[in-house]
C-alpha cells in the first residue's frame, strides 16, 4: 500500500511540475521550441553543424520589413511578410554569385534584387527543398516546369538551419526537404538540367569546375 501511495504521489508531483513549466513558457519560447522540433525532424543526424545549431535561437527575421525597398513592398502588398534574410544567389547559367534577399510571406517566397522581384515561388507550387549533408549553406528551391518559372533557385544562406526551417514551416512542406550526399540535380529551364557536386576541402568555396558543374567545397 505504501509503495502504491508513493508512486501515485510521484506521478502527481511530476504532473504538477510539467503543468507549472508549460504555463510558464512564453509565446516566444514556445515558438522557438516548435521550430526546433521541425529542424530536428529535417536535419538531426543528416547535416553537419546541426548539433552546434541547437544552442542558437532562431530570429524572427534577419531584416525588418522597413529595410526592404518601398517598390518591393508595394509589389507584394497585401501579403504578410514573415521572414527576410540576405542570401547569395547563383545564376543557373554560369553560376555567377549575386547578392539578393530572400523574402518569405505567408503564401510565397520571393528572390529580391534591390527594387526588383527576380523570382516568385508560390508555396502551393513548391516541388522540393534540397541541401547537402555537409556544413555548407547551399539551399536549392525546386520549382515546377512552367512558363512562370525560370528554373530552380540556388541560394547560399548564412543561417541555413533557420532559413530552411522557416521556409518549410510557412510552406507546410517539411516532407519535401531532402538532405543529399555527393551531388544533386537542378532544373535550369527549357527542359535542361544542371549538376551540383558537394565535396570536402581545406577552404569553403563555390565555383564552376572544368566540366561545367557547380562545385561546393
From TrEMBL:
<feature type="domain" description="TH1">
    <location>
        <begin position="47"/>
        <end position="217"/>
    </location>
</feature>
<dbReference type="InterPro" id="IPR010926">
    <property type="entry name" value="Myosin_TH1"/>
</dbReference>
<dbReference type="GO" id="GO:0003774">
    <property type="term" value="F:cytoskeletal motor activity"/>
</dbReference>
<protein>
    <submittedName>
        <fullName>MYO1H protein</fullName>
    </submittedName>
</protein>
<dbReference type="GO" id="GO:0016459">
    <property type="term" value="C:myosin complex"/>
</dbReference>
<dbReference type="Pfam" id="PF06017">
    <property type="entry name" value="Myosin_TH1"/>
</dbReference>
